[in-house]
Amino acid sequence: KMEEFLNLTQLKTSLKEAILLDYYTAGFWWAKEMNFSLIQLSGFMDLLNFALENVSDKHMTLGDNLKELERAMSGIGKTGSEERGDPNLFSIEQAKAIIDYLVISLFKHYKAYEYLFHGRREEPMISNE
């Protein structure tokens, strides 16, 4: 189902699509194991997508991506937002766990993800040789 949701059409022949499927599927199951509510699960998947888009589309450096993640998560755990009934809040403990997860799953492998999205790939050559 994740393959369909992400619209991955070349999964069997594209290493990039296989990596993306693994990234999102692993994140989804991690969030399920954390017992996130449906709204929290959606917010977490948005954070995964946000951080990955910062690499793929915006060509952000690791430092810039970390700053953007900090900005995106800055409202987490504030009581004023909770009083307004903001359903997308995570507790401080959940926010720390999310950051730890992103460090392990994305930021420790940042150069690899940069290469995945921006590295020069040579075209395969087909010849009689």
UniProtKB/TrEMBL annotation:
Question: Which superkingdom, per the lineage?
Answer: Eukaryota
Q: Which residues form the signal peptide?
A: none
Q: Mind telling me which InterPro entries this protein's record contains?
A: CLAMP
* PANTHER family in the record: CILIARY-ASSOCIATED CALCIUM-BINDING COILED-COIL PROTEIN 1, COILED-COIL DOMAIN-CONTAINING PROTEIN 189
Name this protein carries in UniProt: CBCO1 protein
Q: Give the species this sequence originates from.
A: Oreocharis arfaki
